[in-house]
Amino acid sequence: MKKISIPMLLMLFLLMVSAMYAKSKVKRVDKVEDIDGYWNDNDINIVCKDLIAQCIESPRIAKFEAENGRAPTVIMGKIKNDSAEHIDTSIVAKKFQNEIINSGVLEFVADKYEREALRDEILDQQDHSTEESAGEVDAEEAADYMLQGSVKTDVHQEGKIITRAYTVTVQLMHIQTHRIIFSGQNDSVKKQIKRKKFKI
Amino acid sequence: MKKYIRYATGTLLIVALTFSLFTCATTGGKKGKELDAKISKAFGKDDFIECAKLIGEKDKKGTDIALNLDIGLLQHIAGDYEASIKTLDKSATLIDEAFTKSISKEVAGAMFNPNLKDYAGNIYEYLFVNAFNALNYYNAGNIDEALVELRMLVTKQREYATKYGEDLIQDLSVSGDDLDSTNKSLSDIDIDMNDIIGHAPRKPTKDDVYNDSAFIRYLSLLLYTIDNDANNEEDGRRLELLNTDFAGETEAVTSIEEKGREGLGRLNLIAFAGKIVEREEGYFNLPVPLTIFTPNLGLCTAAFYIAKGSPIPPCFGLHFTYPKVQEQESDLRVSSVTITNAVSSETGENTSINLDLKVLEDFDKAVKMEVATKAYKAFNASIFRSTTKKVLTLAAAETTIIEVKKNVDNPAFVDIVTFAAMPGIQKGLEALDKSEAPDIRGCKYFPRLCYAGGVDLPEGMYNVSVKYSNGAEKLIENVYVKKGKNKIVEALCLK
User: How many CB pairs under 8 A join A and B?
Assistant: First the structure.
């Protein structure tokens, strides 16, 4: 029987080790896996789908359009993070806004941060663009309503089980009168995480 | 002849191997000590970013909880709030994950050295990581995320802190099997367990369990009021219970809306002074009375061997350890606070106010409470561990020597091998003592004293000067106090 030489064994060993420590592989996924039980992309999709449906079917919004001959104009306010997790609520806000714009139920104007950039551009145009093509200063369209909301969590632990329940609320408020013409809520995202026993 | 050499070598090798299993090297070494010296130097020069960077070099994997807390706190002290947020977020996750025990390391810790166990953080670290991160977010201008940290704290206090205390009080002793085994091992070498137990640290009570903080309650009261959330009666109530000096503070903070109608806002100062106390090793040594001679290696082992005609343990002592709190070296205190106009007010009057701060919390107390909850159990575990390690080592050596005696029919040779092995066994037993060390890990850069106080001021821009007893001054400039609003200002001096 042919003896396996030490250099060969060493090479085999090195090959094995390098295979173990190979570069990370990237795998594209269609659906985000719920790895740690915290708020994720799937939850945003579930919540936004439901709230947008509620908004589109709102009779008061339909009534505004009937009375005024146009869809209400809305400015995006803040989706406040009132939860016990660090959640980027701007993603929720943007997703909501995009879907609603595409549905045609509401018209959106730029939020206060986007307006700053637009106003700077208009002022720049007064100095540097032709009179015909330059935009008009102080000719912005005002919003009728502001969309605001919040994300809250209710967290409980009993033994090894942690339960997290999320409640997402959005409201359309009239800027002048403060009347609320739409209030939607979604509390369908509930997670139960089983952990290994807490031990000091 | 070859057989004799083989047995002699075998005996010595087995003995050496047995010791190497138990004498686990502690962290450090020359390189570690050099790094520690650099860290101390950077801290001494107030170069907290460099200090944090050097501590990062100690934690190659980035998973050490105590070191991550150190880095996060140093970044906070240096004013690098964004970096501190990331580090303390990571620390909080690591502490949370560490509650899942690493089984193999648990066994190793139980048997060999408690410092081999994964460090899961102490209860006050578990709470303070969120409190300091709340300050990070606030200082970085993000009140919403600061409140998220406080909500995480509420969950922790409700779900963990109370149960942690209950578990600690219930789980005081080693298991019955371990106790029986220890008793037997001790009686084999004529030691009465009662001689040892009398030297144990006192048993903890429920009063030693740290699960609430005046600092956290005060911070929560302020942040929720800033967020216009009036549902902070619980914080105010708990604050006044924890520190009666702050009995009127809730009213002063929450009545800010009314004060706003008079054109007043409130500046609230939180000032930290000194560095939190560290832990050190407490110990109890018990010499094992096996010899009529002085504990001289050759003499006592030879005498016993000759007297008894069989290999028996050489002279050694028992060394038991437990964590205890060091003497606090820092005497640093806030000596005065002066608030002046940064810009002249609308009325043209210049403000210069001396603000009287009171001690809100002494964080050393949290360390003392934490140590008090663990010292008794650690001492018992040390008795089991130290005794078992030594008895196992001696048993291994004794078995080997008996084997030599069985297989080699030259008594003189056996005597020589046995006698030659004894100094090594002695040294090995002494080395076991060195490996017996209590778990004294913890974050070193928490502050010691937290002072707090506030004053109502007309709307405007102010400078705040905080003077410390060591002559240091922290100047916080251009603090804008808005009418009808609370403003939080933080000052730190750790040395």
Answer: 40
Chain B interface includes A194 (CB < 8 A): no
CA angle, A167 then A173 then A178, to 5°: 125
> Any CB–CB contact under 8 A between A169 and chain B?
no
Of A81, A156, A200, the CB nearest to B148: A81
CA atoms within 13 A on the CB side of A62: 6
Cβ pair B167:A155 closer than 8 A: no
> Mind listing the pLDDT tens digit for each residue in B58-117?
888 888 899 999 999 999 999 999 999 999 999 998 887 775 444 334 444 455 556 666
Instruction: Tell if the CB–CB gap between A199 and B101 is shorter than 8 Å.
Output: yes
Across the interface, whether the CB atoms of B151 and A157 are under 8 A apart is answered no
DSSP label at B424?
Answer: H
DSSP state of B60: S
Give the DSSP letter of residue B222.
H
The answer to whether the CB atoms of B120 and A157 lie below 8 A apart is: no
Residues 6+ apart with CB under 8 A from B473: B465, B466, B467
d(CA B216, CA B239): 9
Q: What is the average pLDDT value for chain B, to the nearest integer?
A: 81
Residue (of B279, B278, B284) closest to B436 by Cα position: B284
- Distance, in Å, from the CA atom of B122 to the CA atom of B363, rounded to the nearest integer, reads 13
Angle at B365 between CA B114 and CA B473, to 5 degrees: 115
Q: Is B145 on the interface with A (CB under 8 A)?
A: yes
If residue B354 lies in a helix (H) or strand (E), which one and from where to where?
Answer: strand B352-354
Are B328 and B448 a contacting pair, CB within 8 Å? yes
* Res A85: pLDDT: 92
- How far apart CA B336 and CA B149 sit, in angstroms, is 31
CA quadruple A84, A86, A92, A93: dihedral positive or negative?
A: positive
Q: What is the dihedral of CA B381, B386, B387, B393, to 10 degrees?
A: 140
Listed in order, strand segments (DSSP E) in chain A are 73-82, 107-109, 145-158, 161-174, 180-186, 190-194
